[in-house]
Design the sequence.
DNA sequence: GTGAAAGCGCTAACAT
DNA sequence: ATGTTAGCGCTTTCAC
């Protein structure tokens, strides 16, 4: 378990350290034999180049920052943790490490940036989920590559990996329509959030396309955060004021779960009395008796794509901004049924 | 936002780079005036020492690994994420960074270790929660300092930050006893897990001390994992076979929530018909109507303590193993009441 | 109390 | 196709 250096490898392979370095970087003009010899030595010694030494020369840290609000990190549903795992997974192929930092959801006037930025201990960063504009403004002052996931600053000035929320909202609503539902409600929290707003747009488009009129009484978007308790409350408002709703599209699974709980508590059965569909697919384990139909979001893949983007941008800072849209997929479980 | 080096600071302060270095490390034989001058320059330039350069000399990476199973990371309740945040928080004071890695819950015969170990990119590691023994054995081959949190390898050969689970289980059960309950059930998953087993022991001790006999029919510990679905199942077994149980101590909040759902579904009211207490305090947001009484575990603080321990051990590798026991605190909410 | 200089492990430009 | 060497930014003796 000793730590060997490039010198040890060079000695063992009877070449210079420069040659070893070239082999490591897969340089073209290295003879196959030399390459082989060196690789053998590397393997035998279990040699791993020192990241510090490399970093010193290349002026790179080999680290990528992953930033999200503590709200998002601590949410009961593991949405962003999955995305994080995707970045971490993909990071291997790029020989990068991911440093995770959370920031306060209300990033105050003089809140400080994640330490790895001030410390200059990253080469680029991935920002996951909606974060305060104030934070974004501050971060952009450091000229580090930035990639957004599941959110994009309104000026759209960075690369982003996003869900096709509008299409997803359309498909979810269409699913309910195909099951014969006409009185289809929508609940959403923080509708100013672009993702949730797009899902809402998809809902309206689907109704419109099916020739079903949009009824404002069936729409409840006043909650400020798409969490369970708010789903519960939204459902209460909705169902205590409207008796003929037969289906509900919740902007995410958390709100869908809250709504289901309300319906149960108020003596309604899902899906017998009301069909419910969510979005995100994070609730698999949560509802024991009535598994939730939902729109599956490829969370791991989103992380993977984000890591690919940031890695490219680190290598090639002049890169133009890219947008990757990933589709959401309809998953039919037990919470929706034919009317 | 340019990157200044120690030379720039030296030049600005009219001293040598050695002096700057000494000031940074708060060396005693530096005159107050020089110290001041240098600090001024550092501030003015917003100078941060290069971690790579430092690492190269000191043969340290400045990184600490945080390892847990993906099961634990992705669990619906943010228990280990809180601990992680604690380590990250405390890491600032030690100028360390935390690298998070998950391993498969069933760490197979030839599964590979977290990359930062093979890469030698950490100075020490924190292992959170129960992990496979095979993983521990493999990791110990690298002679890196190890600190456990919320688990300890059976041979107890490392430092650990643990909850006083036995005392916690005792207090939880005592709470129910004080409310007048006599027929008190216990549900647990994976009772071979030391933490859960200790909670169980606390339960038994409390009953014994109160002169209440331990009824094996009231104990359901056959589930293999302390998750909601298993709490639901355990409650079903328990309550369909026993009509006179008036209180339930669940080994953790997840199982308590599952049990509450079962009771609701089967027409029983909490706490009117059955009092329930959990453990961990991770369910604050989850139960809307009946907030769960529980034993609060200081998760953030546990992370903080773990980081302190590992930091000490990195600086002083000869350190003897330490054990830090943190108490769990009774939190009475709405799910328990006087009989 | 402060400075000069060696050297940590690596990359890359330049020689050969 | 391979080797020599300067130098990245810092810490740490050793001089003075």
Sequence:
């Amino acid at each position: 378990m000793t730590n060997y250096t490039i010198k040890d490898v060079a000695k063992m392979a009877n070449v210079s350290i420069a040659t070893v370095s070239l082999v490591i970087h897969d340089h073209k003009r290295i003879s196959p034999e030399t390459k082989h010899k060196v690789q053998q030595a590397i393997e035998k010694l279990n040699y791993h180049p020192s990241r510090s030494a490399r970093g010193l020369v290349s002026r790179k840290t080999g680290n990528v920052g992953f930033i999200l609000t503590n709200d998002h990190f601590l949410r009961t549903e593991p949405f962003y943790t999955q995305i994080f795992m995707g970045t971490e997974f993909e990071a291997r192929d790029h020989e990068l490490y991911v440093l995770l930092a959370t920031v306060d959801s209300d990033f105050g006037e003089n809140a400080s940036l994640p330490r790895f930025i001030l410390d200059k201990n990253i080469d680029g960063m991935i920002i996951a989920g909606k974060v305060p504009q104030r934070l974004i403004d501050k971060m952009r002052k450091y000229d580090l590559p930035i990639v957004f996931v599941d959110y994009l600053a309104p000026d759209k000035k960075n690369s982003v990996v996003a869900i096709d929320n509008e299409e997803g909202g359309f498909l979810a609503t269409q699913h309910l329509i195909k099951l014969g539902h006409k009185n289809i409600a929508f609940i959403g929290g923080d509708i100013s959030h672009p993702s949730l707003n797009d899902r809402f747009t998809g809902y309206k488009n689907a109704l419109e396309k099916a020739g079903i009129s949009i009824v404002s009484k069936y729409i409840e978007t006043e909650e400020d955060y798409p969490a369970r308790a708010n789903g519960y409350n939204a459902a209460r408002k909705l169902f205590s004021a409207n008796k003929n709703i037969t289906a509900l599209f919740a902007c995410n699974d958390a709100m869908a779960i809250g709504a289901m709980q309300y319906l149960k508590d108020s003596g309604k059965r899902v899906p017998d009395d009301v069909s419910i569909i969510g979005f995100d697919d994070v609730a698999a384990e949560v509802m024991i008796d009535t598994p939730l139909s939902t729109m599956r979001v490829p969370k791991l893949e989103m992380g993977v794509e984000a890591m690919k983007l940031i890695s490219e941008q680190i290598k090639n800072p002049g890169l133009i901004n890219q947008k990757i849209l990933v589709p959401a997929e309809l998953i039919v479980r037990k919470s929706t049924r034919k009317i």
Observations:
- Chain A touches chain B through 53 residues (CB under 8 Å).
